[in-house]
UniProtKB/TrEMBL annotation:
Pfam families linked to this entry: DNA_photolyase, FAD_binding_7
SUPFAM superfamilies assigned: Cryptochrome/photolyase FAD-binding domain, Cryptochrome/photolyase, N-terminal domain
Keyword Flavoprotein carried by entry: yes
Domain of life: Bacteria
Domain spans labelled Photolyase/cryptochrome alpha/beta: 1-123
Matches recorded under InterPro entries: Crypto/Photolyase_FAD-like_sf, Crypto/Photolyase_N_sf, Cryptochr/Photolyase_FAD-bd, Cryptochrome/DNA_photolyase_1, DNA_photolyase_N, Rossmann-like_a/b/a_fold
Record family assignment: Belongs to the DNA photolyase family.
Gene Ontology MF term list: deoxyribodipyrimidine photo-lyase activity; DNA binding; FAD binding
UniProt keyword annotations, A-Z: Chromophore, FAD, Flavoprotein, Lyase
GO biological process: response to light stimulus
Protein name: Deoxyribodipyrimidine photo-lyase
Species name: Janibacter cremeus
């Protein structure tokens, strides 16, 4: 018989339970369905995804069917055309993914076929780590402890080489619109973020393990250093499974070190946020905690102008601007900078966090709904943290502390490249600080910080 394997955010062949399940049927037709908008979207994240699909096409020896259309229609159509009784997927636990998959499952059932799920993009599937009473964890630290104690399965085996089936052309012609050419074209283009696909993910991962893991703990908070793994982009497309990474760390000579522990903790954050989103799908774009629902935010033309300055990296705060310009140039931003720019938007400009979260997802190559929305809510004070309303990052001292020599600022903000060392963080203190067109600060941080604290306090009193 034949299994249809519908790839989504699991664009790899190793450690892939759904692939193994499909292979159990004898032979497998691999399928990717792209929404028409994904093919025409010229922004970085959409292009990056096409490059990942192109790499998968190559890895399957050209067997991958790439179709354009609404998967709710194309997938059942493909199953019918190929005579596949079962369509195999890795579970997508995001709200939109769940809804789409339920729809496809219903349609397949109507047609006498079945949607079969195996595995998730997480070491432990969202919803499976819970308290003794069976309730979800609301706070990270106890979740991470329970997650470690739960343990995770070993990576899945690799299927035998010769599993791909190329359906006959009459069947292929009946399945949606062919989008392979667009994908191959995108795949052939050079990109700032380096090569895509499973092989590239493994190369990056092994390099990190060998050269950087042991210094991860010391360097991870420093955007001026190349100290983090940058595996988030590969994880976002499922080019590697976190279970593979966890198994490699466990087998690494540094396995028991603080650095390894810290890295595993960061992966646990990704799992935690996926778990929170699983239990509270509404928290993708709404405040997780109601306590701050009445908090007033700024809107209107003046705010729009400030938000635009933030988007362009022209706030006059060097560390914030470096982060935003890294995002624009690379489709990536260091975690410390993400926290500081998010704090700036929400607490210096008093803008509701979804505005920033949307901008991030439009530009981040590692865009992940759960990590993004909950990363934003962590900073905004509406998320999983118990009482962070009083935490307002100081955009200047954060820069001085985590970019001590100003190298990150100089790399991304050429107008400040002439200021040596820490001076890059405070152009206002230097006579030549504004000689090269760097903008003045758009707000007074001390004043906006007080304003934020006042707003929070009165909301709390009011609530
Ligand atoms: P490393 O330091 O090498 O960490 C290893 C892995 O652990 C990462 O690849 C990632 O999968 C996970 N991880 C690390 N930190 C976090 C974290 N705080 N939350 C969740 N997972 C984490 N991460 C995304 O993958 N996609 C997003 O869309 C995203 N949006 C964010 C938005 C905001 C406002 C903030 C504060 C954080 C966001 N993060 C997001 C988390 C984090 O910034 C990135 O995962 C990290 O910077 C990726 O770089 P890296 O792979 O080099 O990380």
């Amino acid at each position: 018989t034949l299994g249809l394997l519908w790839f989504r955010q699991d664009l790899r062949l190793s450690d892939h339970p759904a692939l193994l399940a499909a292979a159990g049927e004898g032979s497998v037709v691999p399928l990717v369905v792209l929404e028409p908008g994904q093919l025409t979207d010229t922004r970085g994240p959409a292009r990056r995804m096409l490059r990942s699909v192109a790499a998968l096409h190559e890895a399957t020896g050209g067997a991958l069917l790439v179709r354009s259309g609404d998967p709710r229609e194309v997938v059942p159509q493909a199953a019918a055309a190929l005579g596949a009784q079962r369509v195999h997927i890795s579970r997508d636990t995001t709200p939109g993914g769940r809804e789409r998959d339920e729809h496809v499952a219903d349609q397949l059932q109507t047609d006498g076929a079945e949607l079969v799920t195996a595995g998730t993009p997480h070491a432990i599937g969202p919803g499976l780590v819970h308290t003794g009473e069976g309730t979800p964890y609301k706070v990270f630290t106890p979740f991470a402890r329970a997650w470690r104690e739960h343990g995770w399965p070993q990576p899945a085996d690799h299927p035998s080489e010769d599993i791909w089936r190329r359906p006959d052309s009459a069947a292929v012609a009946r399945i949606g619109e062919d989008a392979l050419a667009a994908v191959l074209q995108a795949g052939a283009q050079d990109a700032v973020d380096g090569p895509a696909g499973e092989r590239a993910a493994l190369v990056r991962w092994r390099t990190f393990l060998e050269d950087h893991l042991s210094e991860y703990d010391a360097g991870r908070d420093r955007p001026d250093l190349d100290a983090t793994s940058r595996m988030s982009i590969h994880l976002a497309h499922g080019e590697i499974h976190p279970r593979t990474m966890l198994a490699d760390i466990a087998a690494h000579p540094a396995a028991g070190s603080d650095a390894a522990h810290r890295f595993v903790t960061e992966l646990a954050w990704r799992e935690f946020y996926a778990d929170v989103l699983w239990h509270r799908p509404d928290s993708a774009w709404q405040d997780l905690r109601d306590a701050l629902a009445a908090l007033p935010y700024d809107e209107g033309p003046e705010t729009d102008r400030l938000v635009e300055a933030w988007r362009q990296g022209r706030t006059g705060f060097p560390f914030v601007d470096a982060g935003m310009r890294q995002l624009a140039a690379e489709g990536f931003m260091h975690n410390r900078a993400r926290m500081v720019v998010a704090s700036f938007l929400t607490k210096d400009l008093h803008v509701w966090w979804p505005v920033g979260a949307r901008h991030f997802l439009d530009h981040l190559l590692d865009g992940d709904l759960a990590s993004n929305s909950h990363g934003w809510q962590w900073v905004a004070g509406t998320g999983t943290d118990a009482s962070p309303y009083f935490r307002v990052f100081n955009p200047v001292t954060q820069g001085q502390r985590f970019d001590p020599d100003g190298a990150y600022v100089r790399r991304w903000v050429p107008e400040l490249a002439h200021l040596g060392g820490k001076a890059a963080h405070t152009p206002w203190d230097h006579p030549d600080g504004y000689d090269h067109g760097y903008p003045e600060r758009i707000v007074d941080h001390a004043q906006e910080r007080r304003e934020t604290l006042d707003r929070y306090e009165s909301t709390r009193e009011g609530g």
